[in-house]
Design goal:
This protein is an alpha/beta fold and 363 residues long. The chain is built from 16 helices and eleven strands. Helix 8 packs across helix 13. Bound molecules: iron/sulfur cluster.
Length: 363
Protein backbone atom coordinates (compact mmCIF):
# COMPACT_ATOMS: atom_id res chain seq x y z
CA UNK A 1 0.00 0.00 0.00
CA UNK A 2 1.68 3.22 -1.14
CA UNK A 3 1.27 6.08 1.31
CA UNK A 4 2.60 9.53 0.44
CA UNK A 5 1.63 12.12 3.02
CA UNK A 6 2.04 12.15 6.78
CA UNK A 7 -1.68 12.60 7.49
CA UNK A 8 -2.33 9.34 5.65
CA UNK A 9 -0.45 7.53 8.41
CA UNK A 10 -3.28 8.59 10.75
CA UNK A 11 -6.12 7.99 8.30
CA UNK A 12 -8.82 5.78 9.91
CA UNK A 13 -9.94 4.48 6.51
CA UNK A 14 -6.47 3.21 5.65
CA UNK A 15 -6.25 1.68 9.14
CA UNK A 16 -9.62 -0.03 8.64
CA UNK A 17 -8.51 -1.49 5.30
CA UNK A 18 -5.30 -2.81 6.85
CA UNK A 19 -7.26 -4.43 9.67
CA UNK A 20 -9.58 -6.08 7.12
CA UNK A 21 -6.58 -7.40 5.17
CA UNK A 22 -5.06 -8.64 8.43
CA UNK A 23 -8.19 -10.58 9.29
CA UNK A 24 -7.91 -12.39 5.97
CA UNK A 25 -4.16 -13.02 6.15
CA UNK A 26 -3.78 -14.02 9.82
CA UNK A 27 -5.05 -17.58 10.18
CA UNK A 28 -2.82 -18.99 12.92
CA UNK A 29 -1.97 -17.64 16.39
CA UNK A 30 1.19 -15.51 16.35
CA UNK A 31 3.08 -13.51 18.95
CA UNK A 32 4.76 -10.29 17.85
CA UNK A 33 7.01 -8.19 20.03
CA UNK A 34 7.15 -4.42 19.73
CA UNK A 35 10.63 -3.81 21.03
CA UNK A 36 10.32 -0.09 21.52
CA UNK A 37 8.54 1.75 24.34
CA UNK A 38 7.35 4.47 21.95
CA UNK A 39 5.60 1.76 19.91
CA UNK A 40 3.97 0.38 23.07
CA UNK A 41 2.60 3.83 23.90
CA UNK A 42 1.40 4.43 20.31
CA UNK A 43 -0.29 1.02 20.20
CA UNK A 44 -2.23 1.68 23.39
CA UNK A 45 -3.01 5.33 22.61
CA UNK A 46 -4.45 4.48 19.20
CA UNK A 47 -6.37 1.41 20.42
CA UNK A 48 -4.62 -0.93 17.96
CA UNK A 49 -4.79 -3.95 20.27
CA UNK A 50 -8.58 -3.84 20.22
CA UNK A 51 -8.66 -3.85 16.40
CA UNK A 52 -6.46 -6.88 15.79
CA UNK A 53 -7.85 -10.33 15.00
CA UNK A 54 -7.69 -12.68 18.00
CA UNK A 55 -4.90 -14.64 16.31
CA UNK A 56 -2.42 -11.80 16.90
CA UNK A 57 -0.89 -11.17 20.33
CA UNK A 58 1.37 -8.18 20.92
CA UNK A 59 4.12 -8.36 23.54
CA UNK A 60 6.08 -5.39 24.84
CA UNK A 61 9.85 -5.68 24.81
CA UNK A 62 13.00 -4.18 26.35
CA UNK A 63 12.97 -0.88 24.50
CA UNK A 64 12.32 1.70 27.19
CA UNK A 65 15.70 3.29 28.04
CA UNK A 66 14.98 4.06 31.67
CA UNK A 67 13.33 0.67 32.27
CA UNK A 68 16.39 -1.32 31.24
CA UNK A 69 18.83 0.76 33.28
CA UNK A 70 20.07 -1.62 35.96
CA UNK A 71 19.37 -1.01 39.62
CA UNK A 72 23.10 -0.80 40.43
CA UNK A 73 23.45 1.96 37.83
CA UNK A 74 20.63 3.94 39.48
CA UNK A 75 22.34 3.45 42.87
CA UNK A 76 25.62 4.62 41.34
CA UNK A 77 23.94 7.77 39.98
CA UNK A 78 22.59 8.47 43.46
CA UNK A 79 26.05 7.99 45.02
CA UNK A 80 27.58 10.36 42.46
CA UNK A 81 24.98 13.00 43.27
CA UNK A 82 26.08 12.94 46.93
CA UNK A 83 29.64 14.06 46.13
CA UNK A 84 30.12 17.64 47.37
CA UNK A 85 31.36 19.52 44.33
CA UNK A 86 29.32 17.56 41.77
CA UNK A 87 26.37 18.74 39.70
CA UNK A 88 24.50 15.80 38.17
CA UNK A 89 22.67 16.53 34.92
CA UNK A 90 20.08 14.15 33.51
CA UNK A 91 17.03 13.75 31.34
CA UNK A 92 13.84 14.00 33.41
CA UNK A 93 12.63 10.40 33.26
CA UNK A 94 15.47 9.18 35.47
CA UNK A 95 14.58 11.45 38.40
CA UNK A 96 11.83 9.29 39.87
CA UNK A 97 13.29 5.85 39.21
CA UNK A 98 13.68 4.22 42.61
CA UNK A 99 17.14 3.01 43.57
CA UNK A 100 17.64 0.61 46.46
CA UNK A 101 17.11 3.26 49.15
CA UNK A 102 16.47 6.54 47.37
CA UNK A 103 15.93 8.23 44.01
CA UNK A 104 17.54 11.21 42.31
CA UNK A 105 14.41 13.19 43.10
CA UNK A 106 14.77 12.42 46.81
CA UNK A 107 18.47 13.24 46.73
CA UNK A 108 17.67 16.60 45.19
CA UNK A 109 15.19 17.24 48.00
CA UNK A 110 17.98 16.42 50.49
CA UNK A 111 20.19 19.04 48.87
CA UNK A 112 22.16 17.36 46.06
CA UNK A 113 22.61 19.55 43.00
CA UNK A 114 20.77 17.55 40.31
CA UNK A 115 19.51 19.36 37.24
CA UNK A 116 17.13 18.14 34.55
CA UNK A 117 18.40 19.15 31.11
CA UNK A 118 16.86 18.87 27.67
CA UNK A 119 20.10 18.23 25.82
CA UNK A 120 23.78 17.62 26.42
CA UNK A 121 24.40 21.20 25.29
CA UNK A 122 22.62 22.39 28.46
CA UNK A 123 24.99 20.20 30.47
CA UNK A 124 28.01 21.62 28.62
CA UNK A 125 26.76 25.15 29.34
CA UNK A 126 26.45 24.31 33.03
CA UNK A 127 30.04 23.03 32.95
CA UNK A 128 31.24 26.23 31.30
CA UNK A 129 29.47 28.45 33.82
CA UNK A 130 30.62 26.43 36.85
CA UNK A 131 34.36 25.85 36.40
CA UNK A 132 34.85 24.95 40.07
CA UNK A 133 32.22 22.21 39.95
CA UNK A 134 32.30 18.80 38.33
CA UNK A 135 29.39 18.24 35.96
CA UNK A 136 28.31 14.64 35.38
CA UNK A 137 25.85 13.83 32.62
CA UNK A 138 24.00 10.54 33.08
CA UNK A 139 24.07 8.82 29.70
CA UNK A 140 21.23 6.31 29.42
CA UNK A 141 19.32 5.14 26.37
CA UNK A 142 19.92 3.35 23.11
CA UNK A 143 21.60 4.15 19.80
CA UNK A 144 19.15 7.05 19.45
CA UNK A 145 20.73 9.18 22.17
CA UNK A 146 24.27 7.76 22.22
CA UNK A 147 25.53 9.84 19.23
CA UNK A 148 24.58 13.18 20.79
CA UNK A 149 26.26 12.18 24.04
CA UNK A 150 29.37 11.09 22.16
CA UNK A 151 29.28 14.43 20.33
CA UNK A 152 29.10 16.26 23.68
CA UNK A 153 32.41 14.66 24.69
CA UNK A 154 33.97 15.81 21.44
CA UNK A 155 32.59 19.30 22.05
CA UNK A 156 33.98 19.26 25.59
CA UNK A 157 37.41 18.51 24.06
CA UNK A 158 37.05 21.48 21.69
CA UNK A 159 35.86 23.74 24.52
CA UNK A 160 38.82 22.54 26.66
CA UNK A 161 36.44 21.69 29.49
CA UNK A 162 38.07 19.67 32.23
CA UNK A 163 35.00 19.55 34.48
CA UNK A 164 32.54 17.70 32.19
CA UNK A 165 32.02 13.95 32.60
CA UNK A 166 29.64 11.36 31.24
CA UNK A 167 28.52 8.25 33.07
CA UNK A 168 27.89 5.92 30.17
CA UNK A 169 25.08 3.41 30.79
CA UNK A 170 24.00 3.12 27.15
CA UNK A 171 22.53 -0.05 25.74
CA UNK A 172 22.58 -1.47 22.23
CA UNK A 173 19.46 -2.96 20.72
CA UNK A 174 20.50 -5.76 18.32
CA UNK A 175 22.28 -7.81 21.06
CA UNK A 176 19.07 -7.67 23.13
CA UNK A 177 17.12 -9.20 20.21
CA UNK A 178 19.64 -12.03 20.04
CA UNK A 179 19.34 -12.50 23.80
CA UNK A 180 15.55 -12.84 23.53
CA UNK A 181 15.89 -15.49 20.84
CA UNK A 182 18.57 -17.40 22.77
CA UNK A 183 16.78 -17.23 26.13
CA UNK A 184 13.73 -18.95 24.63
CA UNK A 185 11.69 -17.82 27.65
CA UNK A 186 9.18 -16.23 25.30
CA UNK A 187 8.10 -17.57 21.93
CA UNK A 188 8.36 -14.65 19.57
CA UNK A 189 7.19 -15.11 15.97
CA UNK A 190 8.23 -11.68 14.76
CA UNK A 191 9.67 -8.33 15.81
CA UNK A 192 8.37 -4.83 15.21
CA UNK A 193 11.71 -3.03 15.18
CA UNK A 194 12.11 0.50 16.56
CA UNK A 195 11.96 3.38 14.09
CA UNK A 196 14.19 5.90 15.81
CA UNK A 197 17.02 3.50 16.69
CA UNK A 198 16.89 2.29 13.08
CA UNK A 199 17.23 5.85 11.76
CA UNK A 200 20.70 5.82 13.34
CA UNK A 201 21.89 2.24 12.82
CA UNK A 202 20.09 1.52 9.52
CA UNK A 203 18.53 -1.72 8.35
CA UNK A 204 21.97 -3.27 7.81
CA UNK A 205 22.66 -3.37 11.56
CA UNK A 206 20.01 -6.09 11.98
CA UNK A 207 21.28 -8.34 9.20
CA UNK A 208 23.63 -10.51 11.32
CA UNK A 209 20.76 -11.05 13.79
CA UNK A 210 18.30 -11.88 11.04
CA UNK A 211 20.69 -14.20 9.24
CA UNK A 212 21.31 -16.14 12.45
CA UNK A 213 17.72 -16.49 13.68
CA UNK A 214 15.60 -16.16 10.51
CA UNK A 215 12.80 -14.53 12.48
CA UNK A 216 10.50 -12.07 10.66
CA UNK A 217 11.42 -8.44 11.36
CA UNK A 218 9.87 -5.17 10.19
CA UNK A 219 11.12 -1.67 11.06
CA UNK A 220 8.10 0.50 11.81
CA UNK A 221 7.26 4.17 12.28
CA UNK A 222 5.06 5.39 15.09
CA UNK A 223 1.75 6.41 13.51
CA UNK A 224 -1.19 3.96 13.66
CA UNK A 225 -0.94 3.09 9.96
CA UNK A 226 2.82 2.52 10.29
CA UNK A 227 2.25 0.03 13.07
CA UNK A 228 -0.69 -1.75 11.42
CA UNK A 229 1.28 -1.98 8.19
CA UNK A 230 4.23 -3.55 10.07
CA UNK A 231 1.90 -6.05 11.75
CA UNK A 232 0.37 -6.89 8.37
CA UNK A 233 3.83 -7.38 6.80
CA UNK A 234 4.87 -9.65 9.67
CA UNK A 235 1.65 -11.68 9.53
CA UNK A 236 2.14 -12.18 5.79
CA UNK A 237 5.76 -13.31 6.24
CA UNK A 238 4.75 -15.75 8.98
CA UNK A 239 1.72 -17.18 7.16
CA UNK A 240 3.76 -17.64 3.97
CA UNK A 241 6.68 -19.08 5.93
CA UNK A 242 8.87 -16.48 4.28
CA UNK A 243 10.86 -14.70 7.02
CA UNK A 244 12.41 -11.44 5.93
CA UNK A 245 13.88 -8.25 7.32
CA UNK A 246 11.82 -5.41 5.89
CA UNK A 247 11.81 -1.66 6.16
CA UNK A 248 8.28 -0.39 6.81
CA UNK A 249 9.55 3.10 7.69
CA UNK A 250 11.25 4.10 4.46
CA UNK A 251 10.48 7.80 4.87
CA UNK A 252 12.99 7.91 7.75
CA UNK A 253 15.12 4.75 7.79
CA UNK A 254 17.71 3.82 5.16
CA UNK A 255 19.77 0.71 4.64
CA UNK A 256 22.97 2.38 5.91
CA UNK A 257 21.46 4.60 8.60
CA UNK A 258 23.09 7.82 9.75
CA UNK A 259 26.78 7.27 8.97
CA UNK A 260 27.91 10.48 10.69
CA UNK A 261 26.12 9.55 13.90
CA UNK A 262 27.56 6.03 13.74
CA UNK A 263 31.05 7.46 13.28
CA UNK A 264 30.95 9.79 16.26
CA UNK A 265 29.56 6.94 18.36
CA UNK A 266 32.37 4.60 17.22
CA UNK A 267 35.02 7.26 17.79
CA UNK A 268 34.03 7.82 21.40
CA UNK A 269 32.50 4.53 22.56
CA UNK A 270 33.31 0.84 22.38
CA UNK A 271 30.95 -2.09 22.93
CA UNK A 272 31.12 -3.92 26.26
CA UNK A 273 29.02 -6.53 28.09
CA UNK A 274 26.25 -4.74 29.97
CA UNK A 275 23.67 -5.57 32.62
CA UNK A 276 20.02 -4.98 31.82
CA UNK A 277 17.47 -4.57 34.59
CA UNK A 278 15.82 -7.81 35.54
CA UNK A 279 17.53 -9.58 32.63
CA UNK A 280 21.20 -9.69 33.57
CA UNK A 281 24.33 -9.44 31.50
CA UNK A 282 24.07 -9.43 27.71
CA UNK A 283 27.25 -9.79 25.69
CA UNK A 284 28.42 -6.62 23.89
CA UNK A 285 25.14 -4.88 24.58
CA UNK A 286 26.47 -1.72 26.22
CA UNK A 287 28.83 1.14 25.51
CA UNK A 288 31.91 2.35 27.33
CA UNK A 289 33.88 5.53 26.72
CA UNK A 290 37.15 4.71 24.94
CA UNK A 291 40.49 5.13 26.74
CA UNK A 292 41.37 8.18 24.63
CA UNK A 293 38.49 10.01 26.31
CA UNK A 294 38.97 8.51 29.78
CA UNK A 295 39.29 11.94 31.39
CA UNK A 296 35.61 12.51 30.51
CA UNK A 297 34.50 9.13 31.83
CA UNK A 298 32.73 9.53 35.18
CA UNK A 299 33.17 5.84 35.87
CA UNK A 300 36.97 6.15 35.60
CA UNK A 301 37.30 9.52 37.30
CA UNK A 302 35.01 8.98 40.32
CA UNK A 303 35.38 5.28 40.98
CA UNK A 304 32.01 4.86 42.67
CA UNK A 305 30.31 2.12 40.65
CA UNK A 306 28.08 -0.02 42.83
CA UNK A 307 28.27 -3.52 41.43
CA UNK A 308 25.66 -5.61 43.22
CA UNK A 309 22.13 -4.62 44.12
CA UNK A 310 18.81 -6.42 44.20
CA UNK A 311 15.84 -5.43 42.11
CA UNK A 312 12.81 -4.26 44.13
CA UNK A 313 11.04 -7.18 45.84
CA UNK A 314 8.00 -8.39 43.94
CA UNK A 315 8.68 -6.20 40.89
CA UNK A 316 8.31 -8.14 37.65
CA UNK A 317 9.98 -5.55 35.38
CA UNK A 318 12.48 -8.15 34.08
CA UNK A 319 9.75 -10.56 33.00
CA UNK A 320 7.70 -7.73 31.53
CA UNK A 321 10.68 -6.42 29.53
CA UNK A 322 11.16 -9.88 28.03
CA UNK A 323 7.50 -10.47 27.22
CA UNK A 324 7.07 -13.27 29.77
CA UNK A 325 4.52 -11.32 31.83
CA UNK A 326 2.21 -8.37 31.43
CA UNK A 327 1.80 -5.70 34.13
CA UNK A 328 -1.49 -7.13 35.39
CA UNK A 329 0.42 -10.33 36.28
CA UNK A 330 2.40 -8.32 38.85
CA UNK A 331 0.86 -8.42 42.33
CA UNK A 332 2.05 -4.86 43.01
CA UNK A 333 0.44 -3.37 39.89
CA UNK A 334 -2.08 -0.67 40.87
CA UNK A 335 -1.67 -1.72 44.52
CA UNK A 336 1.73 -0.77 45.96
CA UNK A 337 2.92 0.36 42.53
CA UNK A 338 1.28 3.32 40.77
CA UNK A 339 2.72 6.26 38.82
CA UNK A 340 2.64 8.29 42.07
CA UNK A 341 4.38 5.53 44.07
CA UNK A 342 6.41 3.57 41.50
CA UNK A 343 8.19 0.46 42.71
CA UNK A 344 9.99 -0.28 39.43
CA UNK A 345 11.08 1.84 36.47
CA UNK A 346 8.45 0.37 34.14
CA UNK A 347 5.91 2.40 36.14
CA UNK A 348 8.00 5.60 36.04
CA UNK A 349 8.94 6.17 32.47
CA UNK A 350 6.34 7.60 30.10
CA UNK A 351 7.35 4.73 27.77
CA UNK A 352 7.32 2.06 30.47
CA UNK A 353 4.92 -0.82 29.86
CA UNK A 354 3.42 -0.66 33.37
CA UNK A 355 2.85 3.10 33.14
CA UNK A 356 1.28 2.66 29.69
CA UNK A 357 -1.03 -0.10 30.96
CA UNK A 358 -1.95 2.08 33.91
CA UNK A 359 -2.84 4.99 31.63
CA UNK A 360 -4.69 3.15 28.87
CA UNK A 361 -5.64 -0.31 30.06
CA UNK A 362 -9.23 -0.67 31.29
CA UNK A 363 -8.63 -3.18 34.12
FE1 LIG B 1 7.51 -3.43 38.70
FE2 LIG B 1 5.43 -1.89 39.35
FE3 LIG B 1 5.53 -2.93 36.96
FE4 LIG B 1 5.07 -4.49 39.06
S1 LIG B 1 3.73 -2.88 38.30
S2 LIG B 1 6.46 -4.89 37.37
S3 LIG B 1 6.32 -3.45 40.60
S4 LIG B 1 6.96 -1.44 37.80
Amino acid sequence: MAIKHLEEYRDPQISRKLVEHLKVVSQNPIRLMEVCGTHTTSIFRSGIRGLLPPTIALLSGPGCPVCVTAQNEIDTFITLSRIDDVIVTTFGDLMRVPGTNSSLQQERAYGSDIRVVYSTFDALEIAKKNPLKKIIFLGVGFETTAPTIAASIRTAVEMKLDNYFVFCAHKLLPPALAFLMEAKTTNIDGFILPGHVSVIIGLKAYLPFFEQYQVPCVVAGFEPVDILQAIFMLAEQIENNNPDIANGYQRAVTYDGNIKAQKVMDDVFEAIDASWRGIGKISKSGLKIRKEFASFDAEEMFDVRISETEDPKGCACGEILTGQKIPTDCLLYKMACTPETPVGPCMVSSEGTCATYYRYHAT
